[in-house]
């Protein structure tokens, strides 16, 4: 399969499409080892985790329930604007269920700490967190994911679901956004 040329707004490609596919398959195998044949309730943090969640779901053959939660933390900025805000909550009952919270990136830890705390309050049988990217250098609250796709440096990245001002989510790989593109109006 021919590789697409690098998008003109991307400074460098950090993680290739092929590397993402391989790692998602490995994560699926890890989930299978941990959960066996148990039914899982995936909770995807929208919009960023949509591609990762869809690909991860296809890697397991367990019975799966899927729900989405929407949190706002960046808006049209490259820095989190403080306390994350719940925009859309869960529809499924997770009480007594094995819950896997899926997000695109663990950055400051604020969003996942908020959502994980909320889910734990709903008394699931278990709750684990799976993230595609872990940017440990930006952590502001203590939080660790149970499953991590890639550890990345403190660079502003887009692609494969990650965005800047709702752009670039559709790129098949993950790249560092050029500095001059990080100042565009929303």
Describe the structure.
This protein has a domain at 17-74 and 85-153: Rossmann fold, CATH 3.40.50. Helix content is 20%, strand content 30%. The chain has helices spanning 17-35, 50-57, 110-120, and strands at residues 10-15, 40-46, 64-72, 85-88, 98-106, 126-134, 147-151, 157-158, 174-177. The strands form two sheets. Strands 4-3-2-5-6-7 form a six-stranded mixed β-sheet, sandwiched between helices. Helix 2 links the parallel strand 2 and strand 3 (64-72). Helix 1 (17-35) crosses helix 2. The longest helix is centred in the N-terminal third of the chain and has 19 residues, at 17-35. It is globular.
In short:
The chain has a domain at 17-74 and 85-153: Rossmann fold (3-Layer(aba) Sandwich). Helix content is 20%, strand content 30%.
Strand content: 25-35%
Which structural class matches the secondary elements? alpha/beta
For the largest sheet, list the strands in their spatial order.
Answer: 4-3-2-5-6-7
Overall mean pLDDT score? 89
Secondary-structure element series = EHEHEEEHEEEE
Span of the ends, CA to CA: 34 Å
